[in-house]
């Protein structure tokens, strides 16, 4: 913008002229006329207004981007067929269901990648109701997801439901290829961790999941203690008790939707301790109460004999 100025000789400059010159940016001895000053003020206000408008638009765009991201996460979590909002026709869905059913039945439970394949297929079949497009052994349509699973699963129903639960938790946020690099036990452990602790690629828990089970348990204990993932303690069961205990653990894992034998055993033990004692000496008491009472009784007998509790002669 060109600005018209009026000049004065340096000898005629007053103090007020110098101040005005400093405010307007004019050289000493020059003053900007009122019209030019008005244009400058108007341009400054317009620039300020535009800057405010741009800031408002940027804020609006940021909020919209956040909403879009949240919507994408919801779609991702609810779109197991990865259709990105597209609608699959009934005929295509039927063909897809039959192909996935055949693939699911052929899986072998002993391989690491099989666990992830199961997670993917089970999530597809339950969320998209693909089971209703498949015929059972008698040539009739299945009437529920569970009935399809009973016939098709290459593993126990408890293990299958554990895979389903893990898939619902992990697949929307961790690529299938990355999960295939994890052990089955690490996948199950990771599925217990809050999503915010593993959804970022560089999170320490997610990195540890690619390593040993001990590394992952250490990382979870440090960064997500609320997940209550402790280190394993092994014990051996032999003889006729083994199949009974195995059946009990499988039943608890299925009914209580837990993944590991240790969790199932904890539930069984807790239920037994809280149940009513069958010992006539402790009628009406829980097994835990009976245990505490008997423990005190034995300690008292040891004290009366002059020994110390826990002392070995």
Q: End-to-end span in angstroms?
A: 106 Å
Mean pLDDT: 78
Q: Major sheet: size, sense and barrel closure?
A: 2 strands, antiparallel
Q: What's the total count of β strands?
A: 2
Q: Which stretches are poorly predicted, pLDDT < 50 over at least 5 residues?
A: 1-10, 308-313
* Multimeric organization: single chain
Cα shape = flat
Considering the chains and any ligands shown, give keywords for the structure.
313 residues, mainly alpha, 3 domains, two-stranded antiparallel sheet, 13 helices, 2 strands, flat
Topology:
Blueprint: E1 5-7, H1 15-24, E2 30-32, H2 34-78, H3 90-105, H4 112-127, H5 145-152, H6 157-170, H7 176-179, H8 184-190, H9 204-208, H10 213-223, H11 241-256, H12 261-274, H13 287-304
Antiparallel strand pairs: 1-2
Helix pairs in contact: 3-4, 4-6, 6-11, 8-10, 11-12
What does this structure look like?
It is a single chain. The protein has 313 residues and is mostly helical. It folds into 3 domains: 6-33, no CATH class; 90-227, no CATH class; 249-304, no CATH class. It is built from 13 helices and 2 strands; from the N terminus they run βαβαααααααααααα. It has helices spanning 15-24, 34-78, 90-105, 112-127, 145-152, 157-170, 176-179, 184-190, 204-208, 213-223, 241-256, 261-274, 287-304, and strands at 5-7, 30-32. Strands 1-2 form a two-stranded antiparallel sheet. The protein is flat and about 115 Å long. The termini are far apart. Mean pLDDT is 78; it is low at 1-10 and 308-313.
